[in-house]
Amino acid sequence: MDFPEPNLVKAVALALLVYIIVTYGHVLVQPKTTPAVAASKRVPSCGFPGCSKPAPLKCSRCREVSYCSKEHQKTHWKFHKKL
């Protein structure tokens, strides 16, 4: 039985390695978190005047202003609806 040339084996192995990296490289390497991405994951502060609590609730109408509680959203609505 004849064995393939060593250079051919190396070339095929290298081609296979390149194929795996190109195909699955995005899974193998995790991108670094940039400051812009980290900032977008932060919870905004409450849109109610004078409140700086974290605000996980968004206005269901405009989806831009956030509130820390339903009470703040309801109280601020008469001013916010004009925006």
From TrEMBL:
Keywords: Membrane, Metal-binding, Transmembrane, Transmembrane helix, Zinc, Zinc-finger. PROSITE patterns: ZF_MYND_2. Residues 46-83 form the MYND-type domain. The chain crosses the membrane at residues 12-29. The keyword Zinc applies. GO terms for molecular function: zinc ion binding. SUPFAM superfamilies: HIT/MYND zinc finger-like (SSF144232). InterPro entries: Znf_MYND. This is MYND-type domain-containing protein.
